[in-house]
């Protein structure tokens, strides 16, 4: 009897393994049909505006002629890239883009973190919300308005800042045409405009910090700085790493509109970056394939920076983004 029961159990287990699963792909789609419908608008956006335009990458490998069309233009391979690398302006573009990007990482990237930490120390909810509202406003101001404000403040012909400098020191500084002051001016504009908006992610991360840790630290006699260093910063460290990795993907994107509005003939040697050069070569001069090669080179550098930063973050013991 025992042998027969074991045999029956074996037959049942084998038959159970051999039967197909009820939860098929189609049944899952039917079950989650409403959630999938919510997914469709976002999916359509990425397909239409992100993936379909990627066919334009082929333009960098062709000698595009408008009268021949996209597919009938001559295939030239890497000729446009060779022309880009041999162009004397290439090294100037690399230098300017990397320097502005480096200043951005050194001064602009930490600014929202520091501001979020300061706001987190404000105990009065009314004052905290009021300050947040004030610092969010510049994000919604057009870069054209920001450039106009910069001009009114910095111009040598009645600019407020230059008038103050003249009253104090007896001379004026031509910020708008100076090669020395161009990069600091761009970074200050970015900090003023986007610093407040950048605090949203870090304030959300700070809201999730366990308050019992602060209470235990107070009992142990830890100062506010010790609480910040040993509790707050480690708690948002993962968020900082993820934001850093994502930001490295835009390291070569230096704000086309911002620099285009502030560039002029006198500061061009330090102001010209890949974004403005692609616009000048592609739209104004009509070198579509050449400018596409320059844009593709910039995008490849961004991808390499993202993968490298993510790899270093994982080697350091952090989770990374994938």
**Full CATH superfamily name of the largest domain:** MetI-like
**Percent strand:** under 5%
Structural class: mainly alpha
Q: Which spans have pLDDT < 50 for at least 5 consecutive residues? A: 10-20
Query: Based on the structure, what is the oligomeric state of the protein chains?
Result: single chain
Q: What do the pLDDT scores average to?
A: 86
CA-based gyration radius: 28 Å
Shape: globular
Describe the protein's architecture and organization:
The chain crosses the membrane at residues 34-52, 100-122, 134-154, 228-249, 294-313. With 322 residues, the chain is mostly helical. It has two domains: 44-77, no CATH class; 82-315, MetI-like (MetI-like fold), CATH 1.10.3720.10. Helix content is 71%, strand content 1%. It contains 17 helices and two strands. The chain has helices spanning 2-18, 25-31, 33-51, 79-86, 89-108, 110-120, 125-136, 143-154, 160-169, 179-207, 211-219, 224-235, 237-248, 256-262, 268-271, 274-284, 288-315; strands at residues 62-63, 74-75. It has a two-stranded antiparallel sheet. Helix 16 runs antiparallel to helix 17 (288-315). Residues 10-20 have low confidence and may be disordered.
């Amino acid at each position: 009897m025992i042998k027969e029961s074991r045999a029956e159990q074996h037959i049942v287990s084998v038959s159970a393994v051999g039967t197909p699963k009820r939860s098929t792909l189609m049944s899952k789609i039917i079950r989650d049909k409403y959630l999938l419908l919510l997914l469709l608008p976002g999916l359509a956006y990425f397909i239409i505006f992100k993936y379909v335009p990627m066919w334009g990458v082929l333009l960098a490998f062709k000698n595009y002629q408008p009268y021949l069309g996209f597919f009938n233009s001559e295939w030239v391979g890497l000729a446009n890239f060779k022309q880009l690398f041999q162009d004397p302006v290439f090294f100037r573009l690399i230098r300017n883009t990397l320097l502005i990007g480096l200043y951005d990482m050194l001064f602009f990237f930490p600014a929202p973190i520091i501001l979020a930490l300061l706001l987190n120390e404000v105990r009065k909810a009314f004052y905290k919300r009021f300050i947040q509202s004030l610092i969010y406003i510049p994000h919604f101001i057009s870069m054209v308005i920001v450039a106009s404000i910069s001009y009114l403040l910095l111009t040598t012909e009645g600019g407020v800042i230059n008038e103050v400098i003249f009253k104090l020191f007896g001379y004026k500084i031509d910020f708008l045409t100076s090669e020395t002051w161009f990069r600091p001016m761009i970074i200050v504009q970015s900090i003023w405009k986007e610093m407040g908006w950048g605090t949203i992610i870090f304030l959300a991360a700070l809201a999730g910090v366990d308050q019992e840790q602060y209470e235990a630290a107070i009992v142990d006699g830890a100062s506010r700085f010790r609480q910040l260093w040993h509790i707050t910063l480690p708690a948002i460290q993962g968020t900082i790493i993820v934001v850093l990795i994502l930001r490295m993907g835009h390291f070569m994107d230096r704000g086309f509109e911002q620099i285009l509005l502030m560039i002029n003939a006198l500061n061009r040697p330090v102001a010209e970056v890949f974004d403005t050069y692609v616009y000048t070569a592609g739209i104004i001069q009509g070198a579509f394939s050449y400018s596409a090669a320059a844009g593709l080179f910039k995008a490849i550098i961004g991808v390499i920076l993202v993968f490298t930063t993510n790899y270093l973050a994982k080697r350091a013991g952090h989770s990374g983004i994938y």
